[in-house]
Every structure is written in structure tokens, then in C-alpha cells.
Amino acid sequence: MAGTPTFATPPGFLGVTRRDPSGGIAVAGIPLDIGTTNRAGARDAPRAIRAASRMLVDGAHPGSWVDPATLPIADIGDFGIALGDIPGSLALIEEQASALDHLVAFGGEHGVTLPLLRALRKRVGAPLALVHCDAHVDTWEDNFGQAYAHGSVFWHAIREGLVDPRRMIQIGIRSPVQRDVWDWTLAQGVTIVTAQDFHEAGPAAVAAKVRDVVGTAPAYLSFDIDVLDPAFAPGTGTPEIGGLASWQAQAMLRRLKGIDFRGMDVVEVLPAHDVAEITALAAATMAWEYLCL
After folding, report:
1. pTM value > 0.70
2. Annotation-wise, does 110 bind a ligand?
3. Which sites bind Mn(2+) (predicted)?
């Protein structure tokens, strides 16, 4: 056991006190809540995820044996946003992300992924492969009449050429969805692994499918916490039953070592609806798993 108790860990993610992101991986919060979730409150997620990460600082990652304390991680705090101005906030997020080589972002709701992909697409110079873990396809053209929101992020990403839909895989899908939205998504070339598919195939088979779809392309991981069943992540805006267990998501992620990931986000944590911090801890752990790849 470490000499410092977990409750005394500094407030940065994984206790990180470094603030200079140059030459390493930047961790940043994006406290944006567009307000189209059924239960609002995602703006407070970065703080909750950082706080829960104190449970992960005592030793190396079992399996990879990476000690996060040895990684070049900097917690640069939270991005600035334009309160009440969605296009303005998206532009600000893109501008701030553009200055970072490799970003691990804590939403906020899923709409924050769009400007992150815009910034990364410009840096990479080609459409990205995408590993998208979620209960929802998020390929609606709009969300309750609003063009930019958490349910339309990947409709925009595909239409703008930010991602290559033939290199895009969605994992854990299980929410109600209109047939035309489903058919449009598949017609673009997206691979969908439903939650039922996942349960029947298992984490190893799904990880192999991810590798097959992504190939050697530069890739991005977007992890909506509602991919987990509400039993494991009750603190989220649009919970759907029948989701992945925490161990299933971990087992899949641990098999993705070697994919050319250029960044990731964890989104849709709502601390006000959490129970005993288990959703925030799940989110922090998924980011930790990513870093330990």
C-alpha cells in the first residue's frame, strides 16, 4: 500500500499535479450540458471523475503492469465554454483541443465529442476510425429539433468527414431507435454490435471485431457511460436496461492494445443521480484502462 491515503490524493486525475501538457497526454474536463438529456447535470462530471480516480492511484495496472504515475500525463483543468451558446461552446472546445497532441476528455454530455473530432481530424489529416461505446447510436439528424446535441454527434461526424464510417464500430447499442435512423447508420458502413450481440459473443470476440474494423487507421475512443447497465452506472442522463457490466467493458478495452488511438473521451456522467460514486468510478476506470494501453 502507498504511504499516502487515497483521501489525501491531490484533486487532479489520478492525483496528477503536472499542468504542462507538452510532450504527453493532456487530461481535461469539458463541463458542457446542452440540456437535451432526460436528466440534466453532466456539467459537474469532470470534478466527480477526478475525485473518484483517487481509488486508482495505489499501484500498477494488473495485467499490463503500467503504473500511471510513470506516464506523461498532465491534468490541465477544465476547458472554457460559452454558457448558453451552443455553437460558441463547440467552437471554443475545438480551439482548445486543437492545441493538444493527445487528449483524454471528461464530459459533459456527448455533444462535446463533435468539436474534439473536428480538432483531431485537422491534426491527423484524414478521417478517423472510431470506437463508440454507447446505448444509443447518436446518429439522429437532430435532437428534439436541436441540430447540435448529444444524439446527433455522429450524424454530423459522418457528414463532415471527420470519421470513416467503414472504420467505425458502435458497441452496446440497445435503446429504442427509428428504423430509418438505424438503416441510415448501417448504409454509411458503420458496424453495430448491440448489447445482446455483446452478451452472446463475449468481450474477446467483440475486441477482435473492433480490431478488424479499425485496422491500422488512426483511431478515437468515445465512451458514453450509459453503455454500462444502470446497475453499474445509474448516474447518467438516458439509462437503458440490458447494458454491459463493468467487467465486460474492461475486458474488451484491455484487448485493444496496439490500436493507434489518438485520443478518447468519457461522457454522460451525472453525479447528481449517482449512487455511492459508482458511476464516476466506472468513468475514471475506463479512462485509466485507456491510459494503461
Report:
1. yes
2. yes
3. 110, 134, 136, 138, 224, 226
